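Ligand: iron/sulfur cluster. Inputs:
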Amino acid sequence: MRITIPHLGNVYLAVKILFDSLGLDYVIPPLNSRDALYLGSKYSPEEICLPFKLMVGNYIAGVENGADTVLLVGSCGPCRFGEYPELQIRIMKQLGYNVDFIVMDPVQSIGLNELFKRIRKVGSASKKSALSKIGSVLLAFTAMRLIDEIEASAHAIAGYETSPGEAKKLLSSCKKEVFSCSDPVKAVNILNRYRDRFKTIPADYSKKPLKIAVMGEIYTVIEPFSNLYIEDILMDMRVSTSRRLTPTWWVKDMLLKTIRLNSRELLKASNEFLPLYIGGHARECIGEAVLAAKQQMDGAIQIFPMGCMPEIVSKSILPSITQKKKLPVLSLVVDEMTGEAGYRTRIEAFLDLLERRREHVFIGC
Ligand code: SF4
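Predicted complex:
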């Protein structure tokens, strides 16, 4: 069995650590790019959302590089994500690829027995003992948590750095170093070292950078290619950003969902505007906006793929939050046709607006 995965932000680093630790054979497809998008768009239904197309592009690259199994997480609805695996399996078959799919659907949808059966299918390819396998999973989760922590530090400190660009450079060298290390324990040590290095980046906390919450559809906020590297753009503009939806958050949310204790803070915050689950992470998006206003952030940017049903609903609710909670929000819709220049101009105009709004509040107008 030679496994490949679709990309989702930095998840490939934690997955690599997991597979190296389990001794599994795997192919990490090239990071998302125009090529992956072109390939995925060519073979996907035109009106399907962007994550679907990029995932298909990743599968094709993975299989072309020798993978025979695709490992992915699924959901059984209610938005289009519930249909992803079925459709993608069909597309890969039609393209003539002989590839097996292992879909990790939520336990509430397929039951504990079926979930364990699928986990065993992956685990059986490893010669490690059951105890070592558990150790590998914990090691990978530690890596995922560390990467998320490092990334959050880089995004938060960007507005305060005394030598601008240092956090961005450090983040990029961290990812490269971890990816080129095939010893899983050493890779986690590298992450620990970088986490400590981030604490020593020279910063001037008397600065007053703009603070923005990045929220929206989970794939497009986590996967940098799909959001045209918005967090990098904001770092270059010396803006401090924060994002609650991360791979670590997702894992915890999935686990706690089984006992209905997931994302209490976000869901509670969303109750006033959207008390019902409508699919995707629409409730989380609304909750994030409410919390961003409570934390007196300067604004929020919502990102979602063209045609994303849950986020279209959140978009229609966000103006009420802007009005009631005084939080300016910019909504950005992305698809394969999104032009970089127009996208950047909209972000710059939004930042100008936030700066002017701040001056206005300051002089009491
Ligand atoms: S949340 Fe939106 S983008 Fe994601 S699968 Fe559902 S409809 Fe598509």
